[in-house]
Structure formats: structure tokens, C-alpha cells
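User: I'm putting together notes for a lab meeting next week and I want to include a structural view of one of the chains we've been expressing. I don't have a solved structure, so I'd like a prediction I can at least talk through. The sequence is below, exactly as it appears in our construct file.
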Amino acid sequence: KRNKLFINYLTELSELLREILISVKSTKIKRTTKKISFKYKFITFSLLQIPNRTVVTDYIIMNDEKAYFYISSPNNTLLECIKDGLIAKGTLSLAGAKFEISSIRVYAGPKFIRGTYRFSTLSPVVIRATNNKTARERKILYLYATDRDFKEALKLNLIKRFISYYHQVPLDSTFEIKKIHRFKPVAYRIGNRYYRGNRIIFDVFGSPELLRFAYESGLGEETFLGFGMLKCLAEPKTSKERYYKKEEPIQIA
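Assistant: Thanks for the context. Below is the predicted structure for the 253-residue chain, given as C-alpha cells.
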């Protein structure tokens, strides 16, 4: 029988990962992470990657019953605890489907230098802003890649999150999105709320510390809900910034 997965599975997946993290009895967590809920906000994961699938109305049919996803964080302790928790569970029940964990692989990721990198999104990038109205008329607006303030809002959000995580400002705050090659607006429901996001392929010139933080913790808002995960498609090989392809981050299948 083919596995059916309800299309709005992000709520259950994010709750599942958080429950696994909290339930793991690890002295590492007690020693290095006093506030799990705070640190958890600096984790991101991809949409489920289902190579052979059929989408039918509100659910996904997995034709060969194979799927995988990626998890990333600047905090290796959290990743180790999630890995241990997933191994201990062995099977996962998610959005109407059941999965057996067959393997967990760890990827080192790029060695970032100051330069231009090409990324694609493994999950949508969500970024919001408020309009310049009075308090009564003020609204939260979702920004798309075509909006004028999109690039600057992403940069400011990234720096704010960097400071929140490391408790210091970046030595070099360069993070300039040079070109957006592809853009697709999307919307996902998390609980009773819809989030509007961006699936994009883009080039960005930045400092090593901000590029690494965006890659490891996700880009944009609500990354711990499964938004903003990046895949490095290409990075500068020489000073002339010719591109070559890179590997992917942590994979759980």
C-alpha cells in the first residue's frame, strides 16, 4: 500500500523534532544548552524530498515510499541530540504516513570565504515587514522577492539573529543579494496560520560569518518551523569567482 502524506505536514514535523530534542536525555544539553526553547529557534529543516510522488488535492502519494529531509543548525549539540532521538525512535508517524528511518548522513558543508555564493532554498524563505501606518492601521506584510525591501529585510533579520545567537555583532556585516535567478511564491499552513514565502535561487556576496550562519541556521524568519533552509549550489573557486558545485548538509532518510 502506498503511503499517503497530507500536504500540510510542516506543523507535525516541526513539533516532532522539538519533542525529540526535549525528550533526549543528554548531559550535553544540560551542560551547553540551558534554554532549549531559545536554542531551538536556531535550527532549520527542509521540506520532505520525495523523488517519486504524485500530488492529489490535499495529500501526497509516495509512489516508491522513499523520502528524506535535511536538518541544519550552528549548534552541533542540538543536531547530535536530534540524531540520537531519531535513531532511538526508529519509525516516525507523520501527517497520515509512517516512515522507517533507514539512514542518517552528515555533510560537512562549504568552507565559507568572503565571496559570491549561489544558493537555492530547500524550504521557503519567509520575511515580513510592517507598513508605515498608525498603530491602529498597522499591518504585518509578507515580502516577496519582487518587493523593493526584500533583500534589505533579509539582511537586517540575519544580523539580528546572529547577534541574538552569538551575543556579539558580526565583524563584517556584508550580505548583499546580487541576483535572483528564479522565484516562486508559495504559501504553507502551520497550525491555523498561513505563511507566505519564497522559493528562490539567488547569488549573494557576503562575509564568511554571515554566509555560514545563514547556511547553518536558515535565512529569514520562523526557521524552526521549517523555513529558510539553504542548499549551496556553487561557490567561488578562484579570486575571479568562478563557480563549482558543492555537497548538501545533513540528510535523514
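A couple of points you could mention at the meeting. The radius of gyration is 18 Å. Residues 3-105 form a domain with the Alpha-Beta Plaits fold (CATH 3.30.70.1890).

User: Perfect, that's what I needed.
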